[in-house]
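Researcher: I'd like a candidate sequence for this fold, 317 residues long. If you have to choose between options at a position, lean toward the conservative one.
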């Protein structure tokens, strides 16, 4: 009797214009012959009941293509392991992030969230915004945060709408131009050392010396072993709290304390020109390790009529 051939598990990739990491990742997974194949996800107009052939989907672009996010939330409920968790990705913002850091015992710069400067048409200030204090006590804001401070978009990324302000006038000048954005004001950390970590699978952490002025990674040892251990532990804690399986996390170290600066990057930059060949290869190999292991785990779609619809990853956070 011939042995029945096992159908391979499937990893699907959702990508935008990114050119270096996706083909390298697909090639690596397929080269390993581990009973798992990787390929691009292909979608038309999905119904509620379509077969979803992918056991794991790696999402690199749903922040720019909202249709993908809608489908990914559906796929997650159907038992697909989605990297990264589309529910958290939809909900996260920098004030929530700072809160999460503090709740996990990780130092965060002092942070305040500001009511928006402007609103959509139809909002009448005196009728629609009765819950808001107006005018704001800007002196109290500055007193709490100190100067210089950072004003940034709570939902921002890629350094968009990030302003260093040295005076209250500068803060007000930038705030007045922020329109519909919800902004946070943050204590400016004058750092001695700046670290960016790539974290994969909520476990594997690569701390790298990073120069935010040049926006460049530097290879080589640079942290003493205790600081390195502390940062690795904190990066894991944050990724577990966020349920993010790929992430980049920035820490600014001041007087021996690592402050979590920017750690919600669910589609972290994996470009070979940003990471350089060593860290790029690490990102390819480690993502292959983690996604293959996830694909080989049991896929547990919810039972029909179950009250508990969200199956999640089936792993403890
Ligand atoms: N509180 C802070 N103290 C010192 N530098 C900061 C602070 N917040 C942001 N920065 C600097 O500004 C850069 C961009 O801010 P970040 O929060 O990473 O925004 P984005 O999500 O747009 O990348 C950071 O990489 C860091 O160099
Ligand atoms: Mg950043």
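Model: Candidate sequence:
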């Amino acid at each position: 009797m011939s042995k029945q051939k096992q159908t391979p598990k499937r990893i699907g990739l959702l990508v935008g214009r990114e050119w270096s990491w996706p083909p390298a990742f697909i090639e690596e997974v397929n080269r390993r012959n581990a009973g798992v194949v990787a390929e691009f996800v292909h979608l038309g107009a999905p119904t509620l009941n379509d077969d979803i052939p992918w056991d794991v989907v790696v999402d690199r672009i749903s922040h720019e293509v909202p249709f993908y996010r809608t489908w990914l939330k559906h796929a997650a409920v159907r038992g697909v392991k989605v990297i990264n968790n589309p529910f958290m990705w939809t909900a996260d913002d920098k004030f929530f992030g700072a809160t999460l850091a503090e709740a996990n015992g990780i130092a965060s710069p002092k942070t305040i969230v500001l009511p928006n400067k402007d609103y959509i048409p139809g909002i009448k200030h005196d009728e629609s915004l009765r819950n808001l204090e107006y005018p704001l006590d800007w002196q109290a804001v500055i007193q709490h945060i100190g100067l210089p401070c950072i004003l940034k978009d709570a939902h921002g990324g890629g350094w968009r709408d990030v302003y260093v302000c040295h005076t209250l006038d500068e803060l007000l000048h930038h705030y007045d131009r922020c329109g519909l954005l919800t902004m946070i004001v943050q204590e400016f950390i004058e750092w001695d050392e700046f670290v960016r970590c790539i974290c994969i699978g909520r476990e594997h952490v690569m701390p790298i010396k990073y120069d935010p002025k040049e926006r460049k990674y530097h290879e080589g040892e640079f942290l003493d072993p205790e600081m390195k251990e502390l940062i690795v532990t904190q990066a894991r804690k944050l990724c577990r709290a966020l349920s993010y399986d790929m992430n980049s996390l920035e820490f600014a170290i001041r007087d021996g304390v690592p402050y979590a600066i920017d750690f919600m990057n669910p589609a972290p930059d994996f470009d070979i020109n940003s990471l350089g060949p060593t860290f790029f290869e690490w990102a390819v190999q480690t993502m292959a390790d983690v996604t293959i292991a996830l694909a080989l785990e049991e896929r547990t779609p919810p039972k029909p009529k179950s009250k508990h619809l969200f199956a999640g990853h089936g792993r403890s956070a």
